[in-house]
Amino acid sequence: GPAAPPPPPEAADPYVRVRGAREHNLRRVDVAIPRNTLAVFTGVSGSGKSSLAFGTLYAEAQRRYFESVAPYARRLIHQIGAPKVDEITGLPPAVALQQRRGTPGSRSTVGTVTTLSNLLRMLYSRAGTYPPGAERLDSDAFSANTAVGACPECHGLGRVHRVTESSMVPDPSLSIRDHAIAAWPGAWQGKNFRDVVQTLGYDIDRPWRELPQADRDFILFSDEQPVVTVHPVREAGRIQRPYQGTFSSARRYVMRAFSESRSAATRRRVQRYLESAVCPVCEGRRLRPEALAVTFAGHPIADLTRRPLADLPGILGPAAAPADGGDGGPEGTGEAAAALVEDLVARIEVLVGLGLGYLGMDRTAPTLSPGELQRLRLATQLRSGLFGVVYVLDEPSAGLHPADTEPLLDVLDRLRAEGNSLFVVEHDMDVVRRAGWVVDVGPGAGRYGGRVLYSGPVPGLRQVEDSATRAHLFGEGAAGPGPARTPRTPGRWLRLRGVTRHNLHDLSVDLPLGVVTAVTGVSGSGKSTLVDEVARAVTAGLHGDAEDPGDARDPGDGDGHRPDADAADDGGEFGEGGDDGGEPGGPGPVAEAVEGLDAVDRLVRVDQKPIGRTPRSNLATYTGLFDAVRAAFAATPEARARGYAPGRFSFNVAAGRCPTCQGEGFVAVELLFLPGTYAPCPTCHGARYNPETLEITYRGRTIADVLEMSVDEAAGFFTDVPAADRSLRTLQDVGLGYLGLGQPATELSGGEAQRIKLAAELQRARRGHTLYLLDEPTTGLHPADTALLMRQVQGLADAGNTVVLVEHDMAVVADADWVLDLGPGAGDAGGRIVAAGPPLDLVRTPVGRTAPYLARQLA
Ligand code: ADP
Ligand code: ADP
Ligand code: ZN
Ligand code: ZN
């Protein structure tokens, strides 16, 4: 059984002790975990690791914290509920770095998340070199997010929208009467404009290009608004009275329509005549001229925030050295600079060590992967000076090439050495091997799990026969997803030329069709960028235009796959996610597909974006499973007698749902410090439906009972509803049998969301010419689950489809037919294809940083 030494007096007890934990599927778990140790929580997905680490240990630490700082919050905490556990002793305050929650706002950047921006601004404020006579600026003046700092021309955006003659007059051979000024509105309003121009004495019948430049400039760009009396000429047989017409230049019209029109269609129409350009005042640097005039080490602040972090120590360090102190600042500046630079450089070096040196401080948070964000936060903790806390982490190795895992472990070690404890949910066996303690949860998922199979030093897990982790941890070589396959031989190819974006420059990419390709490389080498560009090129080829990259996204976002068809009254949540805030200036040129495009007739992107952003979506609504379930309820004799249609059983439709919470099951609770906290609805207690709806049962269960079921339970229940049964079985096939049907989308991890999308895709009829793009599908997966997933992936290729996956798990890479290894490094040091071929070829002629790890896997 679990190795829990008998408890000594609490103060001297080096263990966190949990008694009777019952959160979710945990079965009265007792466990003791030493403090000041790297402790990992392992087990198949759904076994209960997070329920123990986050749902119990972290939740309890957080509850105690709130009680201590805000006793009045007790009542609210009572509503939210404490974790279900008898007792926890020896628990330090906890900090959670969890991937699925707390994505920062779109104004956040690498600089703000890491607090590097504050330090850098302080450096410029206090120790920068100012032009002669200039006043010292406050550090806020170096932020484009403040009124005092933002460039007044572009309001800190760095770009402006503007019109040009060629954007508004695409065809200068036309006359004004023949609509040369395309930017003007159509119909009667356009005619007004033309009449006014004619009344003002301009020739509206000559081709535009023959008009004098001064006339053209006035008509297009003037800020004047002369008023004239227009005597309309007969047009199309209609007679009009004279009227007072006001002139408005084409620019004025476009800008006002763009910024003020209430009609989205009008805004969209005039946007076509706007060009987005770098702001001429700040040159894209987003700050006021006064702030940009201040330099440090010869650079304005904006030059440093856009560089890769890795460049900064080399620039800042020498400038702050005592010998070089004379940078024109007032007395004491040298010391202030030295201290700030020392702090900045130390923080940046941690980030560089974690393989994040390719990021720039101005990179916005929505463009970062969850793994990048978590590592940024982790590194920030290193300098926070906290000790005696427990950090609870969720798969910190996600998104990491094996070569990047070492530095991550070093950071975890340093946090521990500073006197902290680390509780880490992990699937990467290299991390598990380095841990001082392992808590293995299982043996299966959901109700087949929920027990602690082992808690102790790692080697002891070898003796635990029930453990699914054991074989993967100790059984070297046997860790692959199955017996070695003979790789498929590529036949046809998709060949792209001129792939250019981020760190990829005019790259040529040859992708084999009909096989499984793994794209590998260290973090920042360009894998996601490459896959995005493949998606764009294929989308452009499929639709004959490149303007709408939204088409290339996952099945939930576009193309009529709107799983909960009756979710009509809550405003299109499934339509979200098409626009993730991208970069200013648009997506840029699309690579040219020179071969193979005709062999792809559909593109499916299976990514880790949430399947919905409100608790109203869940896997049942997303996959369409719920449609079948509701139909089954509506077909019961009682429902038919009462005239309840399937819509009645949707919590998105007013007739059937609980009026208090409008079908959410929860109500928002206002709690200081804890935005977005929910408590169960006081009326329906989480059931979501009104009592009349709940009077209808299908085989003895209400619709609310069904939402409480796990996929596994439901699969045994709906065997006679074919559509539901098919959905449920595909969900089991991707290892999601443990998930609850009604578990809100907002509670699902990125990996779970991705597997739900994959299942939704798998339950459709198979066709042979689809290109599937998968972004690190093994995130959140225990090796045992990875094997399950790969069987599905191989099935797609067996049916003639093409699968491209970005992957770090060498067991998966070894199981692919073809490998594209990007690198050799990150950022500008990457972006090239260093090796391409079947996995064994990569190992035989090793180049690049992936080959050695792949060799170990294939040994
Ligand atoms: P792991 O971290 O090992 O993947 P979890 O602790 O997330 O597993 O899940 C354990 C069990 O608890 C699963 O059956 C899961 O469906 C269930 N569960 C997890 N979160 C919730 C939730 N918010 N509500 C209901 N059940 C949940
Ligand atoms: P990988 O997927 O291999 O981790 P990425 O494709 O995310 O690498 O990144 C490759 C390079 O492109 C890096 O230098 C990264 O900073 C840059 N990059 C990625 N996304 C963006 C973005 N949205 N804006 C600016 N630069 C980006
Ligand atoms: Zn500007
Ligand atoms: Zn309710």
Q: Low-confidence spans: pLDDT under 50, at least 5 residues?
A: 324-331, 545-586
Helicity level: 25-40%
Please name the CATH topology of the largest domain: Rossmann fold
Strand content: 15-25%
Mean pLDDT: 85
Total number of distinct structural domains: 5
Strand order of the largest sheet: 5-12-13-3-14-15
Molecular shape: globular
Tally of individual helices = 30
CATH domain class of the largest domain: Alpha Beta
Give the name of the CATH architecture of the largest domain: 3-Layer(aba) Sandwich
Strands, total number: 26
**Given the helix and strand composition, which structural class is it?**
alpha/beta
Ligand roster: adenosine-5'-diphosphate, zinc ion
Largest sheet: 6 strands, mixed
Alpha-carbon distance between the termini?
34 Å
What is the CATH superfamily of the largest domain? P-loop containing nucleotide triphosphate hydrolases
Rg on CA atoms, Å = 31 Å
Describe the structure.
- The structure is a single chain.
- Helix content is 33%, strand content 15%.
- The chain is of the alpha/beta class.
- It has five domains: 10-104 and 367-474, P-loop containing nucleotide triphosphate hydrolases (Rossmann fold, 3-Layer(aba) Sandwich), CATH 3.40.50.300; 110-151 and 287-353, Up-down Bundle (ABC transporter ATPase like fold); 161-278, ABC transporter ATPase domain-like (Helicase, Ruva Protein, domain 3), CATH 1.10.8.280; 493-546 and 587-601 and 767-858, P-loop containing nucleotide triphosphate hydrolases (Rossmann fold); 619-733, ABC transporter ATPase  like domain (ABC transporter ATPase like fold, Up-down Bundle).
- A six-stranded mixed sheet has the order 5-12-13-3-14-15, sandwiched between helices.
- Strand 12, helix 15 (402-417) and strand 13 (421-425) form a beta-alpha-beta unit.
- The radius of gyration is 31 Å and the shape is globular.
- The two termini are 34 Å apart.
- The model is unreliable at 324-331 and 545-586 (pLDDT under 50).
